[in-house]
Amino acid sequence: MSDESLADRIERWMVGQMPIIQMHGGTSVVREANEETGEVVVELGGTCSGCGISNVTADNIRRDLIMDFEEVTDVHVKVPASGDQGASTVEGGRGGDLRYETESANHF
């Protein structure tokens, strides 16, 4: 096992496995990675807000993290409610109010 934290390993994985997020103007950050409970919270932002396939991206992240990290048992993906940008928005200019995704394709 590496001395690197679970959050750092997942951040590195996100960059390597999900480059399409950045290629399309989106952002991602690991907000929580609890090594004891296996719960991971990932936040998507930028152009992921309002994107028609962001539900597919969220499903892929959820599935792949559980498959690739044996200690990960539960993954939540958060996405801004709107594409607003600017200093008054969520950290990093992600914009909008954060909401947990649901299983519905209309969750954004």
TrEMBL record:
Pfam families: NifU. Residues 19-75 form the NIF system FeS cluster assembly NifU C-terminal domain. GO terms for molecular function: iron ion binding; iron-sulfur cluster binding. InterPro entries: FSCA_dom_sf, NIF_FeS_clus_asmbl_NifU_C. It comes from the Archaea. GO terms for biological process: iron-sulfur cluster assembly. Residues 94-108 have a biased composition (Basic and acidic residues). Residues 80-108 are annotated as: Disordered. SUPFAM superfamilies: Fe-S cluster assembly (FSCA) domain-like. This is Fe-S cluster biogenesis protein NfuA, 4Fe-4S-binding domain.
